[in-house]
From TrEMBL:
The keyword Transport applies. Belongs to the ABC transporter superfamily. Keywords: ATP-binding, Nucleotide-binding, Transport. It comes from Ornithinicoccus hortensis. The lineage of its organism: Bacteria, Bacillati, Actinomycetota, Actinomycetes, Micrococcales. InterPro entries: AAA+_ATPase, ABC_transporter-like_ATP-bd, P-loop_NTPase. This is ABC-2 type transport system ATP-binding protein. Gene3D superfamilies: P-loop containing nucleotide triphosphate hydrolases (3.40.50.300). One of its GO terms (molecular function) is ATP hydrolysis activity. Residues 17-247 form the ABC transporter domain.
Length: 322
């Protein structure tokens, strides 16, 4: 979905975020290198290793850093001339712990809502709503210094949503969370982008997370754009078939050798056997018949799909994902 703005009596379609040649240098270090991207509504994942330029980009979009070169728009507003208006319309969840420990969550979120322009009564109502949405309804009167890491992340998310923004920028929202809390946070991110109708730009160096929740992924490496496309385009069929057999060692070896004798190009891949099916007819029946002949049990047969991390191996000139 692309946002539509009324400019001079005409409807103009434009993305949520647009950058053109955006560059940021710190002395001899280039944090962003001529970055040109176009981000639409929904959930967009911004992925890259630590130091790839993700946080720098977010701070520039919010007007907290000045770019060395290039330009950018957020919600149709220029970052150089309208940074205050951008911050009014955008919610921001920072990566690091920045919550005042001696303040209750409800008071903090109300304060942040009022700082964004909401009147007192509306701010309190909105704060109660967003704290309920992020799962802190029962804990909203506790001092945040006593919160767990997961609760602190939820409180930071709540303040980012307090003023009903059109866009939220989430910087490493799953940082420091255990697997269960990470799943809950990712579910919240997905709800914000799809159920609440708020555009989301979420950063992470954990590649698998963005595959799960993003509609679109922007991959950065060393401050440069490596690739930008729909998430499903990253995860197409590789032409490989993965076979897992019951047992390891001898069973896997016998199965692989038997398939090779039958003219199938295959190789071990951890506990799996990887079969190259490109340019040849389906081999499922052959795999089944070979397993029967070798008296090997099959656990699963599935097509192999690409992952975002494969982009780094194939295209990144320098650096691997963290």
């Amino acid at each position: 979905m692309t946002l539509v703005y009324l400019i001079g009596g005409y409807c103009v379609r434009m993305g949520v975020i647009q950058t053109e040649g955006l560059t940021k240098k710190y002395g001899q270090v280039t944090a962003l290198d001529s970055l040109t991207i176009d981000v639409d509504a929904g959930v967009t994942g911004l992925v890259g290793a630590n130091g790839a330029g993700k946080s720098t980009l977010i701070k520039i979009l919010l007007g907290l850093l000045r770019p060395t070169g290039g330009r950018a728009q957020v919600l149709g507003m220029d970052i150089a001339a309208q940074s205050q208006q951008i911050r009014t319309a955008v919610g921001y969840m920072p990566e690091h712990d920045c919550l005042p420990p001696d303040v209750r969550a409800i008071d903090f979120v109300v304060h942040m809502a009022r700082m964004s322009g909401l009147p007192a009564h509306a701010a309190r109502e909105r704060a109660a709503d967003v704290l309920r949405h992020v799962g802190l309804a029962e804990e909203r009167y506790r001092l945040m210094g006593g919160y767990s890491t997961g609760m602190k992340q939820r409180a930071k998310l709540a303040q980012a949503l307090a003023h009903d923004p059109k866009l939220v920028l989430l910087d490493e929202p799953t940082n420091g969370l255990d697997p269960a809390a990470r799943d809950d946070m990712l579910h919240l991110v997905q709800r914000i982008g799809h159920d609440f109708g708020i555009a989301v730009l979420v950063t992470s160096h954990l590649l698998g997370e963005l595959e799960r929740v993003s509609d679109h992924v922007v991959v950065l490496d060393g401050g440069r754009l490596l690739r930008s496309s729909a998430t499903q385009d990253f995860m197409g069929d590789t032409g490989m078939l993965l076979v897992e057999v019951l047992g390891e060692g001898d069973a896997q070896t016998r199965m692989g050798e038997a398939l090779a004798r039958a003219g199938v190009a295959c190789r071990p891949r951890g506990r799996l056997i990887e079969i190259d099916t490109r340019g040849r007819p389906p081999v499922h029946d052959l795999v089944r018949d070979t397993a029967v002949a070798e008296q090997v049990g099959i656990v699963r047969i599935q097509a192999d799909h690409a992952r975002i991390e494969d982009i780094f191996r194939e295209e990144a000139p320098h650096g691997q994902p963290a």
